[in-house]
Design goal:
The structure is a single chain. The chain is of the alpha+beta class and about 1000 residues long. It has 27 helices and 25 strands. Strands 7, 8, 9, 10, 11, 12, 13, 14, 17, 18, 19, 20, 21 and 22 form a 14-stranded mixed β-sheet that branches. Strands 1, 2, 3, 4, 5 and 6 form a six-stranded antiparallel β-sheet that branches. The longest helix is centred in the last third of the chain and has 29 residues. The protein starts with a helix and ends in a 5-residue tail after the last helix.
């Protein structure tokens, strides 16, 4: 394949299911975006097994036309179905099942030009087989008698199993990427073919393709959300944010069937989330231009149900609140294994750490409110006492934020005993295993009801103010160092001349330079910092409260990410009142057409509003001039040299979006409609390519000028934002400018920025090719010329109240983040309960009254109805949903499918993990029975043993001195609760209660061995 057309084909994926009636036989014709060739895989008409020999001219072809020409030698052909990607294939009895993604939506364009596809429309194709056993079953049914009854029962069970597999909800709730591993936090250095299997949902369905040496045609499917938003900061600079959430598959099930731990030591509804922020430092503007460079940052957190053994009992046919039942024996078995699994996954990679003199150091918060570190001192002390000396993962600090209802002196709560057990668990793990765990208990509902949304948020910020700076976030640069996935000429082929090398050796090699890693084929990431801790948000369901609280935690980290990346999202304190005062007008031409800021260009007087990315979608072709300045890839897709993001680029890379999933709210439905409109505009991107290339070659426009395309005539015209006039004639080029003081001044001149030292110099050297004028342009901040932009101190907003926070941070940035969390919350709730997320309005405290987002959340009264709907839904449909989940994942096949059913493709139900697991049998904490029998030494049971609302720490009871200490701690907590005020809800009072509980535990708590019930 040669020429531009061949390259365009090589960068796309497609699949066709073809029937040759004369044989008769079915074939699957596949083109993977990671290969130059087409493969023709035959489905054995008797057994359903896939057949592929890697023979050129027989099942490997250079084009789709040559493959069809080969098939027509056997007679007429019929195309039964088409799609973009294969998502799975399996065989159950006499039926084979092929899952195709008919339509996908490019929901995110990650740095490096990696397009993440969300499944918009999927379809199952059922293919009947002439299996030997099928004839025997038909004969038994025809014979009648008991044998016929048994055969009919077995056949009905097989049909029911097939129906459950094919009715599993896929559309709108799953995503994949063919060029980058998205099963691990960004940027993963592992190839796509070596995913983190605990987040891969089509492992069973992909086993068939692996068996014939074609794992790349069936990409790992992740359940969750991946969405990007392209924004503009207050200084006119483009940047992007992306929210990714991955639901674990180690403990699947609906709400009332998957809570707490299971035998895999996995809590129910476990979700890994990450927020990625990046901006492009340089866009290529021609074939001889240097490769692009991206500055990126990533923050990861977890959310899930409480990690101990417990469940629920439904009362009143689902009308009343479910009763929580905690397993009485070995209540904490597997809890330590789960904690250690988290520590191992998020241990900083020593290879990515610079030498101590070169390391980037996140700026810590100078001092936490009330002189407290938010409880981190206990965790830090554990690491300083020798823990982790031999195993670095033992020193990774974890923060457990418990959002369970703890009740009040006059009102008990069903979750209070679970909260008390969680208190005990964390205390036992800290005491017995010296794990660096921090525990924050916040009865979000009760505090919010008593004091309101803003005070609850400020209280939460007070507690994490000393923790988030200690954990920090990942930070680095990305640069293309060789041919990547967009270079068709360098793609691999599946012909007989290619050995069956592993996907790892085919796709990428890990850099050997310290502090660097691969991030997709042809790209290298240079790490300036790694995240050094993890926050996990815990509640009964991992639905509403976890989504709200994680938003308020992540939004603080987001502000700091932007500060370090030199993204101007903070207004001056005197710029206006809270929210909405910044102008939503388009920014001035501070950046040239190549995406690089123009030195000396006038700074924008407007801000980045929430409508920036929506306006880009609405304007369609007009916005594409700037967004696609580097040229479109195959299928109108994003250019590999465009890492800034933006919805117009995504629309050009995607097919029309499907109808919105039930998980999405009214807000996301509107966004999907806008995305579909942009997708239609993107289909015309190829016709504009010549115009776009001509604009690139013509060089930059004068300051304040912008090129657009007339909708009616298709002609290019020019807008002078300085005089607010338009012209058909291109203005003369700008005069030469003096060189900028430093080509990487944005890295070293940030107000109050951390010292980047040698790492900053190396990062600057990577971008030293960014020239001034012509196609380059330096990026030099002109702070004095931007009256609205204001620098921030490190973690400055952690000390702010909600009114100050909402008044200083860019309205557009806050709206974009809130929208992503709203959609993510609805999706997670729909997958777990079949209903919309509740309490979403609490994330909108920064939104203006007339914000459209306020119509998307579920308010107080709507939440009551959603709660009732959830319980009824769980009672009626949970068993059916559990069967769907198990069968789609290939679990419990022997339970749902009759014995003797032909199943050629099976996988081990034990999911392979990235790291060796800890031993539960040797864990004394796992042998604890909770609550202990009356009179036994150990933690107190029932609601009375839990700290009050807002308290933190553990609560332990017993006889003698421990009982006295417990009584003193309870009195201290009650006194602290009485002293709560609207300004210091969880400040000194909560810290005092936490300290009292911690001291009580260290002084009086028995060892785990003493707490074990010896009568077991």
């Amino acid at each position: 394949m040669e020429g531009a057309s061949d390259d365009a084909v090589a960068l796309s994926s497609s699949v066709s299911l073809v029937l040759v009636p004369s044989l008769p036989a079915y074939f699957v014709l596949i083109k993977s975006s990671s290969r130059r060739n087409y493969v023709l895989v035959k489905i054995n008409s008797r057994t359903g097994e896939l057949q592929f020999s890697r023979t050129r001219g027989q099942d490997v072809f250079a084009s789709e036309a040559s493959a069809f020409e080969y098939l027509r030698k056997y007679g007429p052909v019929e195309v039964v179905g088409t799609g973009r990607n294969v998502l799975g294939y399996t065989v159950i009895g006499a039926t084979s099942l092929l899952l195709l993604a008919e339509r996908v939506r490019a929901s995110a364009l990650m740095p490096g030009g990696h397009v993440v596809q969300s499944v918009a429309v999927s379809r199952w194709h059922r293919i009947g087989l002439s299996l030997d056993g099928a004839d025997a079953t038909a004969a038994a049914l025809a014979a009648g008698g008991p044998a016929a009854v048994a055969a009919a029962r077995e056949e009905a069970a097989r049909v029911a199993a097939i129906d459950k597999v094919t009715s599993f909800a896929i559309d709108g709730a799953h995503f994949f990427c063919e060029t980058l591993d998205v099963t691990r936090p960004f940027p993963s250095d592992r190839p796509v073919g070596q995913p983190s299997w605990e987040f891969v949902w089509n492992r069973w369905l992909a086993a068939s393709w692996t068996s014939v040496g074609l794992p790349h045609v069936c990409p790992p499917l992740v359940q969750g959300l991946c969405e990007e938003r392209g924004l503009v900061d207050l200084d006119g600079g483009p940047f992007s944010i992306a929210l990714l959430s991955r639901r674990g598959r180690l403990h699947v099930g609906p709400r009332y069937r998957a809570r707490g731990l299971n035998d895999m030591a996995e809590p129910g509804n476990e979700i890994e989330c990450e927020l990625v922020v990046w901006r492009t430092l340089r866009k290529s503007a021609g074939p001889s231009a240097p490769p692009p460079a991206v500055l990126w940052s990533r923050y990861v957190w977890r959310r899930g149900s409480v990690p101990l053994w417990w469940g629920v009992r439904i009362k009143g046919n689902g009308i009343g609140e479910a009763e929580i039942n905690i397993t009485r024996t070995s209540t904490f078995k597997g809890s330590r294994r789960y904690v250690r699994r988290l520590q191992k996954r998020y241990t900083p990679n020593p290879h990515l750490e610079k030498e101590s003199s070169d390391a980037f150091t996140m700026a810590p918060l100078p001092s936490a409110p009330n002189g407290s570190s938010g409880g981190y001192s206990a965790a830090a002390a554990a690491g300083q006492q020798g823990v982790g000396a031999s195993d670095p993962s033992l020193s990774v600090p974890l923060v457990f934020v418990s959002l369970l209802r703890k009740g009040t002196p006059d009102k008990d709560r069903s979750e209070s005993k679970l909260a008390s057990a969680f208190d005990t668990l964390v205390g036992c793990l800290r005491k017995e295993h010296r794990l660096p765990l921090t525990y924050i208990a916040l009865d979000w509902h009760e505090v919010d009801k008593s004091f309101g949304h803003e005070v609850t948020t400020e209280a939460f910020w007070s507690q994490v103010s000393g923790l988030l700076p200690e954990h920090g976030f990942a930070l680095g640069t990305m640069q293309r160092v060789g041919p990547d996935h967009t270079h068709a000429a360098t793609l691999f082929q599946d012909d007989g001349g290619m050995s069956r090398r592993s996907e790892h050796t085919e796709t990428q090699q890990r850099p050997t330079t310290r502090g660097e890693s691969s991030c997709g084929r042809g790209w290298t990431a240079r790490w300036l910092a790694q995240q050094k801790g993890l926050v996990r948000y815990n509640c009964a369901d991992s639905l509403d409260r976890t989504n709200v609280s994680s938003f308020f935690g992540a939004i603080q980290v987001f502000v700091e990410q932007c500060r370090v990346l030199d993204i101007a999202i903070a207004l001056q304190a005197s710029a206006g009142g809270p929210r909405g005062d910044a102008s939503s007008a388009p920014p001035a031409a501070v950046y040239g057409e190549d995406g690089v800021r123009k030195p000396g260009a006038p700074a924008t007087q407007g801000g980045s509003s929430g409508s920036v990315w929506q306006r880009d979608l609405r304007e369609g072709l007009l916005a594409m001039v700037q967004d696609l300045g580097g040229g479109a890839g195959a299928q109108g897709g994003p250019s590999a040299e465009d890492g800034a993001g933006g919805q117009a680029r995504l629309a050009a890379a995607s097919r029309p979006a499907a109808a919105s999933s039930p998980a999405l709210s009214a807000m996301s439905n509107a966004a999907s409609a806008a995305s579909a409109a942009a997708g239609a505009a993107g289909a015309a991107g190829g016709a504009l390519q010549a115009k776009l290339d001509a604009l690139d070659l013509a060089g930059p426009l004068p300051p304040g000028w912008e090129a657009k395309i007339d909708r009616t005539s298709g002609r290019v015209f020019y807008v002078d934002h300085n005089t607010k006039t338009t012209a058909w004639v291109r203005p003369p080029p700008p005069p030469p400018r003096a060189p900028a003081p430093s080509t990487h001044s944005h890295l070293v001149s940030m107000p109050s920025a951390p010292d980047l030292s040698v790492a900053a110099a190396e990062a600057g050297a990577a971008f030293a090719h960014v020239s001034v004028g012509g196609g380059g342009g330096g990026y030099v901040r002109t702070d004095a010329a931007c009256p609205q932009w204001a620098p921030l101190q490190p973690w400055d907003m952690l000390r702010a109240d909600c009114k100050t926070f909402g008044g200083r941070i860019s309205p557009g940035a806050l709206s974009a983040a809130a929208e992503l969390f709203l959609v993510n919350g609805d999706l997670a709730a729909w997958l777990y309960t079949g209903s919309q997320a509740m309490h979403s309005e609490r994330m909108l405290i920064f939104e203006p009254i007339d914000s459209k987002l306020r119509k998307a959340g579920v308010g107080l009264y709507g939440g009551i109805m959603v709660g009732i709907k959830r319980r009824l839904h769980n009672v009626l449909l949970d068993a059916d949903k559990q069967m769907q989940l198990d069968l789609f994942l290939g679990l419990k096949l022997q339970e749902y499918i009759p014995p003797g059913t032909y199943l050629p493709y099976k996988v081990d139900v034990t999911v392979p993990l990235d790291f060796p697991e800890s031993d539960d049998e040797a864990d004394p904490v796992g042998a604890i029975d909770w609550p202990p029998l009356e009179g036994a030494a150990g933690p107190a049971g029932g609601a009375g043993g839990a700290p009050g609302a807002g308290g933190a720490g553990t609560s332990v009871g017993g006889g003698g001195a421990p009982a006295a200490a417990a009584a003193a701690a309870a009195a201290a907590a009650a006194a602290a609760r009485a002293r709560f005020s609207s300004q210091d809800l969880l400040g000194a009072a909560a810290n005092a209660a936490s300290a009292a509980a911690a001291a009580m535990w260290e002084a009086a708590a028995p060892t785990p061995q003493q707490q074990v019930h010896h009568a077991r």
